[in-house]
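Human: If only I could read backbone structure tokens as easily as an amino acid sequence. Underneath my words sits a plain record pairing an amino acid chain with its backbone structure tokens. Take your time, and here it is.
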Amino acid sequence: MPRGFFITLEGLDGSGKTTQIRKLAAWLSRRGMEPVLTRQPGGTAIGDRVREILLDARSTGLAPMTEMALMFADRAQAIAEVIDPALAAGRIVLCDRFTDSTEAYQGGGRELGSEIVLELHSAICAGLQPDLTILLLPSLDASLSRARRRNTRAEEQTGKNEDRFEQEKDGFHRRVWEKYREIAAREPERVIRIEGDLAIEEIHEQIVEAVAERLLLTGRKA
């Protein structure tokens, strides 16, 4: 059986990833290509427990190296439990964040650098790379405003405060944003960058155009 196709969506919190990955999943499903959806951190029972630690605003004093190690622990579990089996079965996998997020947030935001992130990726993830990455880059201010509003609503509804990263100062988020741009410039064949404060449908159209083109190269009609 042909290997499946691995697509990731990346960007700052509030960039619209979750909305766009759901729309892309629906678009693929309408064409008979039922995708496997997952997210990082999370997406497995163990990963969801790790996610609580990483995102909970009460997780104060978490060392940057600990934070990065937890991200990779979650990722290793997701690869073993969800991603690898789905790809082996020939499925399309849509993942909300992957190692690019760790390079951007811990490598850039926490200033750990890209080298250690990529070394850990090679060792822990066996070098698994997405076939296609969609990077959403609206303006920094727009992303942060949306993320903070969303987290306020979520806390009111669930009682959970998952804005540990959003509480960081603007300099942190600027470094994340710039690291994402660096990744896209380094890997232009894999990473499709969609920039600007665009309408939801406009972003969706650009995403499905990129996905359809790449799937066609694998012999899949979209």
Notes: Helices lie at 17-30, 45-55, 64-88, 99-109, 114-124, 140-158, 170-186, 200-217. The CA atoms of residues 151 and 157 lie 10 Å apart.
